[in-house]
């Protein structure tokens, strides 16, 4: 169990991690630079070269990067426990789709994204120490608080 203050530190730390990891995805130009590094890592891990990205692919990677960056800045500035709970849910969804891509493509570079996503998801799913009072005055813990 984590105290609320410790949990807030986890939420903020996950947001900082996201800012660092997501920044290259924000523009098509920075993503293309990252893609070259990811390709080299993937090949070095025994995977096939990554496919080339067309403009439509770059659009979607930039949309992803932009949305995650805004969400990350919000959690950095206001690391509410409920934001951490929502972020955990998003990380489980991301991990699911990355695991699907791993099964379909076998690209080992995906492990470098799946493992941290699951770890941050688990960290932000831990129970909080000290229940939060409910509307009726009863103590309870909500996954979204």
Summarize the structure.
The chain has helices at about 5-20, 30-45, 55-75, 80-105, 110-125, and strands at about 130-135, 140. It has about 140 residues and is mainly alpha-helical.
For the structure shown, list the relevant keywords.
145 residues; mainly alpha; 5 helices; 3% strand
Walk me through what this model shows.
- This protein has five helices and two strands; from the N terminus they run αααααββ.
- The protein has helices spanning 4-22, 28-44, 55-77, 81-105, 111-123; strands spanning 132-133, 139-140.
- It is globular.
The helix content, as a percent range, equals: 55-70%
Instruction: Output the radius of gyration.
Output: 18 Å
Kindly report the average pLDDT value: 91
| SSE arrangement, N to C | HHHHHEE
Shape: globular
Report the end-to-end length measured between terminal Cα atoms. Answer: 15 Å
Beta percentage is: under 5%
Low-confidence stretches: 133-141
Backbone structural class: mainly alpha
The count of strands amounts to: 2
Q: Give me the side-by-side strand order of the main sheet.
A: 1-2
Largest sheet: 2 strands, antiparallel
Tally of contiguous helical segments: 5
